[in-house]
Structures are given as structure tokens and as C-alpha cells.
Amino acid sequence: MTVTGQPPVPVSRTPWKAVLGGSIGNMVEWYDWFAYASFATYFAASFFPKGDATAQLLNTAGIFAVGFFMRPVGGWLLGRYADRRGRKAALTLTVTLMSLSALLIAVAPTYAQVGYFGAAVLLLARLLQGLSVGGEYAASATYLTEASHPRRRGFSSSFQYVSMTIGQLIGLGLLMALQHTMTDQTLHSWGWRVPFAVGAVGAVVVLYIRRGLLETEAFEEEETAAPARRGTIKGLLSHKREFALVVALTMGGTVAYYTYTTYLTKYLSNTVGLSKSDATLVSFVALSIFCLLQPLAGALSDRIGRRPLLIGFGVGSMLGTVPIMTALQGAETVGQALLLSLAALVIVTGYTSINACVKAELFPTHVRALGVALPYAIANALFGGTAEYVALWFKDAGVESGFFWYVAGCAAVSLVVYLTMRETRNAALSRSERAGDVPQPA
Prior knowledge:
There is one protein chain. The chain is built from 21 helices and no strands. By secondary structure, it is an all-alpha fold. The chain has one domain (12-425): Growth Hormone, Chain: A, CATH 1.20.1250.20. Helix 6 (117-146) packs across helix 18 (355-362) and helix 6 (117-146) crosses helix 19. This is MFS transporter. Belongs to the major facilitator superfamily. Metabolite:H+ Symporter (MHS) family (TC 2.A.1.6) family.
């Protein structure tokens, strides 16, 4: 309900401008991030000696995981930067770093040219990507949540995963286009460089767009307060419980998300037996539908709360992962693989659609970006970044089904947290909201 006589929320700070500004950069960030995973099967042999294909994928997956271990550093540095200099400044910096990392991969020399130096360049690029994405998630989640109308935070913040998914879809779409316009030999030789060159150029465009964003009202309020306490570890440690909550509630969600997105294409081609083009098609269609589900689920959380969706994800992932992944192994057609992939992604939507606003709603403004960034990045480094590597390790050991139980177990741990945590839908993020100057969630 709006308080009579109180000014409305400034139009320039709400709906589409904030969502578009925060999301379009996020899209390019995650396009570059996922391009590595999507094209890994083509460039794996370029950076490591010839040998077993699974061993080459393990090497590239290892470098992929290393990028995740840089994310806590990025979460700390860029989360602090966002709390001290502003959400807009942090969003601009993250996309600059991502442009540089994409360019490095596009021009990296191969093993045949310089030996392992090419792999070292690849590793450096992944470290920069990890640094960038470690800050991007928090800056984007915080910006989208703070800039949204209080009654539409779930809906607006869901566009973070919409943009992430669109970035992945662009990568997959480009992959399918290259598969149809280039020979397999050309793709393995140099065609895999194309998406990284595209990502570098796209990031420059987004850099220009993000420079025109408005800062959020919540940060501008805090900017007038004591600057020394903003974005500090000391300030964050006064919210230890919330810190632990973010780590635990992220654990199951990030493992499930990366299992059914970045790893899915490899699983369909390397285990299920689909051709690379069919595996890519399944992932593309499934992710397109998944993308459309995010705002619907986010809007639902604005009505019924965040916890019911999180609990639904926890139960579904805990009980459904083993049956779905086992059934996928026996899928004989593209249609069967698509239906099973969709079932998994519908379950994951309970987490992806609202996790950004849930985390932002747990912390006060002066440590909000850092509070979202650091524990989330730690959880991703430990569980999300290693999901693909763990999956391939189980496969290489001949007990691939062990990975299914691992994913289910991580979801079970997070489910305990969802069942015991407080509801965050009604959290006030600024002084004006606490004073009742803007409509509060129903």
C-alpha cells in the first residue's frame, strides 16, 4: 500500500532502465564465461598434447575450475569496490576485465606453436574471468534488487539469470551456426576463436552502455553515512549468520545449475551418445524455455515469498537428480533428452529465479555487495566451479552415477537451510522503504 501524500518512486530508478542496464552487461559477462565451456570440446586439443579425449577435457575443465577459485578474490575486491564506489562503478569495471580476458583467449597460441605457454595464457584469461565474474554477480544482483520496486524485486532480479541464460544461448547459437558453416576440422583448428573475439567486442559496447546507468537510491543514502564502514570485512563479520546462509543456500543451487547448463552439452555427447550438434540443439531449446520461466517464478515469489520456491527446488533436486540423470543415459532420441533436460531445469528454476534478491535482502546497504559477493563466490569455488571436473572424474573412474548422488547430496544440505531460514521478501533496503514512503511487498 502507498502512503498518502508521499512521493512515488522516481521513474528513472525503476523498471526497465535498471533491468536493461544491469542485465545487458551481465549477458556479455556470462556469454564469455559459458563460451569457454561450450567450445571446450573443440579447443581442448589445441592447448594440450594429443591423447585421450576425456583426459584433454579434464585438463580444460581443470582450468575452468581454476577460474572459479579466483571468484572469491573478485568477490572481495569488487564487492568492496561496489560498496565503497557504487554499484555502477563496479558494473563498469567488471565488464572491462571480461573484455580483456575474452581477447586473451581469442589470440592465445596453441600447444603446437609454443608448448604449454598457450595453456598458461588460457589460465591467465580464466583467472581474469573469475575475478570479473566474482564481482559481476554481486554488483548485478545488488543493483537489480536495489533499483527495483519493493513489490517487484523477485521479478526484476530474476532477469539476472535471464541475462545469464541469454548469454549462454548466444554462445550456443553461435556454436550451432559455426557447426553448420564450418567443417569439424576448421572448428578444431581456429573456428573456436570466433566466439571469444565476438565477446571482446560485445563487452566494449556494454561498457559504453553501462556508463550511462543511474546509481541506486539505497547506495546514495549510504554514501552520506560513515564511509569507513562501507565494504569492509569487519563490517561483514558482524553478519556471520547471513554469510553462512549464503554459502549454504548456494551450495545445492550452484551444483545443480552448472550440471544442467555448462556440463549438460558434454554429458549428452560424451555419455548419452548424441552427436555434438544434437547435444547443442537440446541444450539450446531447453535453456530457451528455462529463460522464459525465470520472470514467472520471480513474480510468483513476490506473491508467496522466496522460501516456498527454494524449498521446492531443494526437494526436487534432492529426489529428482538421480532418476533424471539415469534416465538421460538411456535416452534414444533428441525429444527424450529434451524432455528430461527440461524437467531438471524446471526444478532448478526454484533457485535461479530468486537467489539474487534473497542474498541481497539478507544484508544492510553498507556491506550488501560484499555480503552477496564473497560467500557466493566461495560456494561457487568449492561446488559450482568443480561440478564439471567432479563429473568427469567420476566418469573417468567408471562410476559416473556417483556424480548424480553428489548433486542430490548438495541439494539436501541446502534444503535444510531453506527450511530453517527466515523469509526475506519484506526486507526494507533503504531508509525510504523503512519509513513507508514506497509501497511494501504484499
